[in-house]
Amino acid sequence: MINFMKRNLLVFFKDRASVFFSLLSVFIIIGMYALFLGDVWSSSMSEIANARNIMDRWIVAGLIAVTSVTTTMGAFGTMVEDKSKKIIKDIHSSPMPRVSIAGGYILSAFVIGVIMCVVALVLCQLYLLSGGGTMFTGIQFLKIFGLILLSTFSNTALVLFFVSFFQSNNAFSIASTIIGTIIGFMTGIYIPIGQLPESVQMVIKLFPPSHSALLLRQVIMEDAITTGFAGAPAEVVDGFKQMLGVTFQVGDKMVTPMTSILVLIGAGILFLGLALLNLSRKKR
Fold first, then answer.
1. Phi and psi at residue 279, in whole multiples of 5°?
2. Tens-digit pLDDT profile for residues 169-200
3. In a domain, 284, yes or no
4. pTM for this predicted structure
């Protein structure tokens, strides 16, 4: 399994186009934010002294969450390509058990997702420092890395479930394009969640990757919000957090961090089971 995982890692990283397109939605978000979204949102918060720092950290958290989805999607392109080129038949004819083959694909996608998220985190930290921001503390780095592991696990399973239905590169490419396009909306990056209709907000709150973004925002934005809203009434701070998707409210109750963690764990286990069931059904 480990050797097969290494093979998949080499195939992915040798294909520069796959690496680029797995990060395409991230580049689009960065471009939109740098060109106009950052200035628009910061100007609407002119009464807050560190508004740009808050929004920079907001977009950074969203970018890491998005990366954990798009890069795992790109990683599973190796599995789809093996199917479309009939390479999978040669792999199945080897002495390697079927469970090791499936595990190799899953582990390689997970590792790729974690590596790319860590790279994104480093680049985002450099971006924050270039804009006058501060360095994440050691505790923050550990929390962010833990959330990267959890988010990548959940999103690997979610993406695997969708990819398990594809047999051709064309179908996979179309799906990747669609997911890359809507992921920014579903994680509340293009438009803050609080500005969307209630029905759309509920759909986003049920979408597991949005809980990844929520947890990352709570860690990454905590200090900036505390500084920017020093002395402000609690209801003002709570309303701001809900608008930007730093906290979720369902009915009269706030979604706790532990609830979001359980959502990610539960979604990961559920979609992993469904994906493996679908793959085994097709083999019969």
1. -65, -40
2. 888 888 888 887 788 888 888 888 888 888 99
3. no
4. 0.90
